[in-house]
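Hi all, a correction to my earlier message: I attached the wrong file for ZFY21 protein. Here's the right sequence:
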Amino acid sequence: MSGCEARDAKKLVRSPSGLRMVPAHRSARSPFGLDEPPWVPDKECPRCMQCDAKFDFITRKHHCRRCGKCFCDKCCSKKVPLPRMCFVDPVRQCAECALISQKETEFYDKQLKVLMNGATFFVTLGTSEKSELMVCRLSNNQRYLVLDGDSHYEIEIIQISTVQILTEGFTPGGGNTRAIGMILQYKVPGSEELTQMKFTAAEDFSCNKKLSASWLAAMHKVSKGGKTNRKL
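and the right structure:
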């Protein structure tokens, strides 16, 4: 087991919003996660914060699990998965938040899974002329980019500063391109200087070019969305 996988234990917790399966250690939290928002106190929301309907015995108030605001049932009726807060089941959200969460589902169900499955690349460190064939994947806790070959690297996602995807196949007429590699820049803990790695898709038959291209596309979406933004 690698060092970045040693603290992947999870625990089931119950909050007013629902059941959540969260990392046992706060330091193992995913950089893509969100904290539960504080709920607007009942006494501060006599009316729906969307349609202004007055709450009474018939018109009950509900809190959106993503933003914490107070709504009537009509404005907060959808129950949508919210993996960024580690909820076990779909939870009640207002229309605006439900739309954001639905868009993120594709990110969690597809892109992160592709990255965790991994792909094989030739990796060149810094200005070295030598490259090493390595399996690259996102760790199970989503905190590290793990590279395994004769050498071993664990790059913390929040330390990655830039991701440049390398492509080929572009033509002046607008022809299709395909991802063939990437250049990654990151900070090593304790240093302010940037370290660079170049990833190149392997050309031999033992490696799946389509898998490598999918992995690079997922990495591009992760970097484009931002590692700590509330919206991915």
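Sorry for the mix-up. Helices lie at 95-117, 209-225.
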